[in-house]
Amino acid sequence: MERIEHRASFGGWQDVYRHRSEVLGCDMTVGVYVPPQAADGPCPVLYWLSGLTCTEQNFITKAGAQRYAAEHGIIIVAPDTSPRGDDVADAPGYDLGKGAGFYVNATQDPWAAHYRMYDYIVDELPAWVEADPAASDRRAISGHSMGGHGALTIALKNPGRYRSVSAFSPIVAPSQVPWGEKALGAYLGEDRDAWAQYDTVELVKSAKERLPLLVDQGDADEFLDTQLRPQLLQAACEAAGHPLTLRMQPGYDHSYYFIASFIGEHIAHHAAALKG
Amino acid sequence: MERIEHRASFGGWQDVYRHRSEVLGCDMTVGVYVPPQAADGPCPVLYWLSGLTCTEQNFITKAGAQRYAAEHGIIIVAPDTSPRGDDVADAPGYDLGKGAGFYVNATQDPWAAHYRMYDYIVDELPAWVEADPAASDRRAISGHSMGGHGALTIALKNPGRYRSVSAFSPIVAPSQVPWGEKALGAYLGEDRDAWAQYDTVELVKSAKERLPLLVDQGDADEFLDTQLRPQLLQAACEAAGHPLTLRMQPGYDHSYYFIASFIGEHIAHHAAALKG
């Protein structure tokens, strides 16, 4: 484990680490914001999952989340979005392979060797984080776009593991949209039953824990109708009786300007759940 | 004039324009944050000058200033840092030529043809901004590093033009440090009297207006002792009786994490001066 960035930020520290992932079979970079309150004892942890093309840098440089994390005393862990390295399989498009791990465990060649982002986010990363006495095992999870899909599916598949979950502009029905069909088809093969295990709209039907979902979506998002389709989530939650707060934000697009505008409200939401 | 970005942000709009600069003889890109209050009448304007290597993008994507601008009802105008284009002179280093205009009017070849950032920032850019009824002629100015140098020198040279001035990690004595000696030598030639016209420590001696200077400086800044040397500004202000608030911020470096941590306080400082 190596600390490769260490920058003072809002009274705490925005760090970046490189650590070995056994699950992924490669080195991974992870942004970790440590609020000033960590000096006085363990702090709860918000896991942030980024979207297509991102590394750990996008969220830590553009979201402005450190201010709110410092206000509420929350650690934010923001990992890279896929395995990396010369021996890791890749594809020409931005929406498959490196930068596009989709937070699943791949079963198909050539992806199965390294693409196990689900296990990395659910187990290995928190174990690594919580080995530090600054971090408690009170966890929340959030993310954007592909990372919003990751946050929602991971929370729904792991009852009791997260105190709260939220998402910005998430892919809610990957089995029904082009990004998801391409990625799940490649990583999981043609069996659509396997896809359903990583599809929020499917998982909501039988969720064992009715953890409320907070979702913000810009109504000027360029991917709204083709890839995101939040009305599918709304219908699934209504049918299943799953609590959902879906907020359509007028004028906002898919960019980090949108995330920055509402990340404070999301962190306040998580802080309320993480207390006590 | 062309609007090339238009993104909802904290209830207002983060725009980027491309406009023709007659002064610079090229097209320039400018970030403009328009707060929600602009719908109700003209808002005052904070001009932000960025540092070496930057374009208009660095500040608008990384500083997190929009939140505070929206809170106080302030427009923020963040221009590029030099003339641009294939016919604009450049040099191999990051600290001369494109991305390194130093906010001076060059007198030497090959720079004199386009490098007139001083006139652009003082006259042409505000005239372009204030032609829009959303912008008032109440002005404040701030910046980072080379842009902190620009903000301080421009405010000192133009009494009555700005209600307030501040800087992050500014180059305060370009005549005495390597960045400044290289750039002023190239743009202005060997006559050091010409340099003094763009040197804060020199200008403070005879400033016609004793506008208070607010300066934040990280004490872990990697350029502190070689390029920035705020103690020279402190001594000059003490000798001249010029009001200065110099805050050494423990642990902070030269990055945008530092700017983001304190931009809220700077905007509140400018907002207080811009009211009324």
TrEMBL record, chains A, B:
Free-text function comment from the UniProt entry: Serine hydrolase involved in the detoxification of formaldehyde.
Substrates-to-products reaction catalysed: S-formylglutathione + H2O = formate + glutathione + H(+)
Enzyme Commission designation: 3.1.2.12
Signal peptide: none
Assigned keywords, A-Z: Hydrolase, Serine esterase
Keyword Hydrolase: yes
Name the record gives this protein: S-formylglutathione hydrolase
Keyword hit for Hydrolase: yes
Pfam families xrefs: Esterase (PF00756)
Gene Ontology MF terms: S-formylglutathione hydrolase activity
InterPro entries, per database record: AB_hydrolase_fold, Esterase-like, S-formylglutathione_hydrol
Family, similarity comment: Belongs to the esterase D family.
Enzyme type, top EC level: hydrolase
